[in-house]
Amino acid sequence: MAARGKGFLLGIALVAGVFAASSLCANVTYDHRALVVDGERRVLVSGSIHYPRSTPEMWPDLIQKSKDGGLDVIETYVFWNIHEPVRNQYDFEGRKDLVKFVKTVAEAGLLVHLRIGPYVCAEWNYGGFPLWLHFIPGIQFRTNNEPFKTEMQRFTAKIVDMMKQEKLYASQGGPIILSQIENEYGNVASAYGSGAKPYINWAATMATSLDTGVPWVMCQQGDAPDPIINTCNGFYCDQFTPNSNTKPKMWTENWSGWVIYFGGAVPYRPAEDLAFAVARFFQRGGTFQNYYMYHGGTNFGRTTGGPFIATSYDYDAPIDEYGLVRQPKWGHLRDVHKAIKLCEDALLATDPAYPSLGPNLEATVYKTDTGLCAAFLANVGTSDTTVTFNGKSYQLPGWSVSILPDCKNVALNTAKVNSMSMIPTFVYESLSEVVDSSSTVNADWSWINEPVGISKDDSFVKPGLLEQINTTADSSDYLWYSLSTDITGEEPFLEDGSQAVLRVESLGHALHAFVNKKLAGSKAGNSDNPKIAVDIPVTLLTGKNTIDLLSLTVGLQNYGAFYDKTGAGITGPVKLKSSAGGSMIDLSSQQWTYQIGLQGEDKGLPSGSSSMWITKPSLPKTQPLTWYKKHK
Ligand code: GAL
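^ Those are the sequences you sent over. The predicted structure of the assembly is below.
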C-alpha cells in the first residue's frame, strides 16, 4: 500500500481536476479490504441526499454541511418516473437536475455514489417506476422479461450516457466512484421463481457492459455475480460478509432513523446507537458506509410512495428536513468520523485480529510490522464494565465502542456524546384552528369549492366497478364513481323500518361517500392495511338518489414482490342494505360514471390564478371538498 499522504494529495487533486477537461482520471477498483482509488485503498464515509427531495438552492449548503460532518461521498438514487413521466419525454429541470446535483457535490470536493436502480424503493411513488411501464403489453417487472429488460436497459444506459457526456465518472476525472444496479432484489427474489436468477445475471452483465470505469454494487443480493459487489442494508451491518473474499465489506444503507407514515409515530434513532453501529462496522472490517438518510428532505408534490407515507422524509437524519443540522446527532457522528479517520492508515494496511476480551466484549486490533496500530473495544452487552486491554484499564459503557487510533488512548467512545444538543421549536398554525375560529372573515385565507360528483367533460360511463390505478394511470389521486338510482320506498331492505346503509368495499386508500350531494361518510385505510370495508348510514329519498364516491390514492406502493400489481379503488361490492341485514340491492355491476381527477386539478390548483380564489364573505367551515389557500 502506498503511504496515506499520497491519498490526501490525490483527494485535493481530484477536487481541483473534476472539471479540468478530465486531466486527472481516477481508476476505481476494489480488493477484499476496500475500494481502491488509483491504487490506494480508501475508508469512505457516505451519506444519502436525494436531489428531488430538496431544492437546487439548498444543495450547496446541504453538501457543505455533509462535508463539515466528515462525509467523503454523497449517495443518491436516480428517480426514473420524474425524469421520464411520458415514455421518451425526459425532464431534468429544477429539482430533477441530476447533472447539476452531481456537479455541486464535485464542486464541494466530495465523491458520488449513483444508485441508478432503476427500481429504487425509497418510499418513492411506485418505487421509482413510471406508470406507463405498467401498460406495456406483456410486461412483467423485475424478472426475466424482455419488454421490462428493454426498458430498464434503455433508462440505465440513458443515465450512464448523460454522466459520461458530462465526464462525471471518476474514470473521466469526475466524482462518481460507484454505481448501483437494482435494489434489494435478494429480499424478494424467491417470489419471482425461476425468472429471478437469470434476471439478476442479466442486470449484472447489462450494467458492467455500460463501461462506466467504476465498480457496480447490488444491495441485499447475496448471489450478486462477479464483479458486482454485494452490500448490506440495515440498522446494523457489522456481522455482514460479502459473497466473495475478493470483495470489500460495504454498507449501502445505515438507517439513521426511519420513514414517517400518516398517523404513525415520528421515528427517532439515538445518536449513540447510530454511532455504535458505525463504529462496530469499521471495527469488524468495513471500509465504506452510507447513512440512509444523511438529509431526508421532503416528498414534494405526488412523489411519495406508499400507501400513507408522509410528505416529510425527515428520517431523523443528521441534517433535518429544513436543512438544519440535527444535534447532537450530526456533531456526534462528525466526532466518530474523525476518530475513524485517525485509524485509517492502520485499517487499510491490514486485516483485523480479534484478541479475546470476555463475554459480550470484543477487541479488534489492526497492527502492522511498520508500527501502525489501531484498536476498537466494544461492549455489546447492556451493562457498563471495565476491561483490561494491553495491560491498561478501560471503562466501557454498555452498548458502546471505544476507538483507540494508537491502540492506547481512547479518541472517542460512542456512548459519550460531547457534541452540543439543540431542541428546535416550531411555530405553526393549523387549518382547523383557522376554519373553526369564530371570526367569519380571515384575511389570510381564501378558498374554492370543488363540485361533488361528475363535473368535467371527459367523464365516461362503464358497467361495473373499475380498479383505480389502471383507470387513472396515476394521473391524479382522485377517481369519482357516480351513480343515480331510483328508490320506490318499497324495496325490501327498507321495509323493516331500520336504517338504510351504504356498504362500500375498496382496495384503498381512502374514500368519501356522498348521497344526494351530501357527505354521508368517509373512511381511510392505513399503511399496514389500505383496504376499506365500511357501512355508512344513509337517508334515501323516494325517486332519484345520487351516489357519488370519491376514491383517493395516498402514494402508490413502492416495496414488495409484485408490488406494482397492487390495486386501489372501489372494486366492490357496493350495496344498499338495511342495518338489520337481510335483503339488499347490489349496485356493483350497474352503469357507473367515472371522472379522473378533480376540477381544481385541471385549473392548476393549488397554485392557479389568484382571481379564482374567493375571500369573502366568510370561509366555509363544514363544506366538504374545499380548496383552501393561505396567503401569508
Ligand atoms: C430499504 C430500501 C430503501 C428504503 C429503505 C427504507 O429497504 O432499499 O430504498 O426504502 O429501505 O427507508
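The chain is about 20% helix and 25% strand. The longest helix spans residues 146-165.

Shout if you want it in another format.
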